[in-house]
Amino acid sequence: MDIGTVVGLIVAVVAILASMVIGGGNPVGLIDFPSILVVFGGTTGAIAASFPLARLLKAHGVILKAVFAKPADPAETIKDIVQYAEVARREGILSLEGLIEDMKDEFIVRGVKMAVDGTDPELIQVIMDTELEALMDRHTAGKQIVDTIGRMAPAFGMIGTLMGLISMLSNMDDPSAIGPGMAVALITTLYGALIANVFAGPIAEKLSNRDAEEVLIKTLIITGVMSIQSGDNPRVVESKLMTFLPPAQRKAIEAEQAAAA
Q: Is residue 18 scored above 90 in pLDDT?
């Protein structure tokens, strides 16, 4: 579980409620069922009309990925690939077949299997690049639903506010009811803003980060497999892969290796 995501969402909600209580307000006063129906019902209907049902049924999995997905460590991936390169250099690339069961990433397994089978290097590159592109397309499709929620919810909040204002202005006989009526009308805008900025926006950004992390790992693997297949020295393989890491992380890995030596 990504504790940062959970804690961040909780902090945002608690801060909003606490600020209202400190300011003398009543959080219960934010509950208005007609406003909930407009914002949540309207957003749900618009999302259902915007996307195929098959994608919507998988949307919960996309959202949960932002909270529960555990990204692989690039440094560990590099370490594993360099070890495979050392074995291939010492015993031949066919020896990697005996290590397949111990490989942690299915993407590495597919690449190594193709290399062991003697598949043409250009074909290996094309197949692995195509799989990476398909992965990125799936991530984009999942994130698109969350992005759309972030756009639709404030729009329906504004629609609810306009409906409340129209209803209020059409009945001006009782001036004392104008204030409460205005408050109820504005609650829908609040609901839309909360959905967009407390839920949809952060989840969409987290999914973008997850995509970048996974793409980095897959790119490392493609580069490593192609380097092993071409018979590069393990140090050359490591040098190629280390270029994907930020300088600070490279120095930390190099310091760790020096200490281990």
A: no
Tokens in use for 97? Answer: 């077949």
- Contact (CB, 8 A) for 15 and 27: no
The angle at the Cα of 115, spanning 114 to 121, to the nearest 5 degrees, equals 95
Q: Which tens digit of pLDDT belongs to each residue from 129-153? A: 999 999 999 889 889 999 999 999 9
150: nearest Cα among 80, 202, 224 = 202
Alpha helices in the chain (DSSP H): 3-22, 33-36, 42-50, 53-57, 59-68, 74-91, 106-116, 121-169, 178-194, 201-229, 234-242, 247-260
Q: 55 Cβ partners below 8 Å, 6+ apart?
A: 141, 142, 145
Distance of CA 88 to CAs 91, 99, 216, 231, Å?
5, 11, 24, 8
Domain ranges of the chain: 1-28, 32-261
How far is Cα 141 from Cα 110, in angstroms, rounded to an integer?
24
Q: Are 227 and 251 in contact (CB under 8 A)?
A: no
Average pLDDT over residues 3-12: 85
d(CA 104, CA 47): 37
* pLDDT tens string 153-204: 999 999 988 888 887 777 777 666 666 667 777 889 999 999 999 999 999 9
> For residue 193, what pLDDT is reported?
93
CA pair distance 261, 257, nearest whole angstrom: 6
Q: How far is CA 115 from its chain centroid?
A: 31
Read off the pLDDT of each residue in 63-92 and give the average, rounded to a whole number. Answer: 87
